[in-house]
Amino acid sequence: MPERETIVAAVEPVLTPLGLELFDVQFTGSGRARTVRVVVDRDGGVDLDAITAASERIQPVLDDLDLGDFALEVSSPGLERPLSRPDHFRRALGETVSVKVRDAGDGARRVRGALVAADERGITVEAEHDTEQVGYDQIIQARTVFEWGAPPKQEKRSKSRAQKKQKEVAR
Asked: What CATH code would you report for 86-144?
């Protein structure tokens, strides 16, 4: 299997005209069960049409690389996306993240909060009561966190008023 960088270099140019960015390339399985997973993204998210268009453009490019037998899987990173490279972290600035960090001993702990900075050395997470800088070498695992929220109270009230009016009209 060619190196990840070879696949990245071949795939990125076919995604750009589609308005898509290459988020990651992953390899799973072995032999006839090998899968090349290409994860694409764009501002505003990726829909099924974008996934289909990307698949149609990527397959011939990978065939030209002579990878042998493999299955192509094209997907989006999802709402709670993994963060593993500096560019992933920079793209998630302002979002809530959960980061599993190596402790000074052999343990690990979680840091959760707003990602307020990311550079080539590490990240800064603003938690509820403090701000913490974490080097990339300390990060075991990280992802964005999708927070489900209740709708604004105004919407609830307007629904209630509308329901009351419907009941009055029905009387």
From this structure: 2.30.30.100
